[in-house]
Write a structure and sequence with these properties.
The chain is an alpha+beta fold. The chain contains six helices and seven strands. The chain starts with a helix and ends in a 5-residue tail after the last helix.
């Protein structure tokens, strides 16, 4: 179903698709940058999509359309944007740097863009990447959004990968954060207790 939706709404800027199967019906939530394109005039396009999915699954389809708040910090949409630019024969370096600048202006803390294939029509396939800001790929608590897109060019397919760092996912206030603070306080008290005898030894005796 995801493949069918992606192919049908290729230019609608679809970020992600959530599918919930409930008995004899299927609930689908589509996150897109262009909700008006999916709905169409008077809901014409969305009805066509519903009918196509109903024929594919033989079940009742419930569609929910949600708009992506910040397009420039959505990794999937950014990767597809670079792919569209490559298909329009825009220089891959220029396409990568443009999306990186827009992402950093929109509040991203870091971004990494990678392109693989026959870049610029070269005979040998290669991989090039650019990054700006901080992108901690090995940090578990880092909130990193990942997206992948493909560009169909006259020289073949070019793969585009995007990583966007949005900040750290911290524990809840009532959980580990308070425990860490308590540990720091207890360590400080123990240190003070250990230092007291040393101060007494240094005092001059009359």
């Amino acid at each position: 179903m995801r493949t069918y939706i992606k192919k049908t709404l290729y230019t609608a800027g679809i970020s992600r698709v959530y599918i919930d199967r409930i008995e004899d019906r299927i609930k689908i939530n589509i996150f897109t940058a262009k909700p008006g394109m999916i709905v169409g005039k008077g809901g014409e396009n969305i009805e066509k999509l519903k009918n196509g999915l109903a024929k594919l699954t033989d079940k009742t389809i419930q569609l929910d359309i949600s708009e992506v708040e910040n397009v420039d910090t959505d990794a999937q949409l950014v990767s597809e944007n670079v792919a569209f630019s490559l298909e329009r024969r825009v220089s891959f370096r220029r396409a990568m740097k443009q999306v990186m600048q827009r992402a950093m202006r929109s509040g991203a803390k870091g971004i990494k863009v990678q392109c693989s294939g026959r870049l610029g029509g070269a005979e040998m396939a290669r991989t090039e990447h650019y990054s700006e800001g901080n992108v901690p790929l090995s940090t578990l608590r880092a909130d990193i959004d990942y997206g992948f897109g493909e560009a169909d060019t006259t020289y073949g397919k070019i793969g585009v990968k995007v990583w966007i760092y949005k900040g750290e996912v911290l524990p809840t206030p009532g959980g580990r954060v308070l425990k860490r603070k308590e540990q720091r306080k207890s360590k400080g008290r123990n240190d003070n207790r250990k230092r007291r005898p040393r101060n007494n030894r240094n005092k001059k005796t009359s």
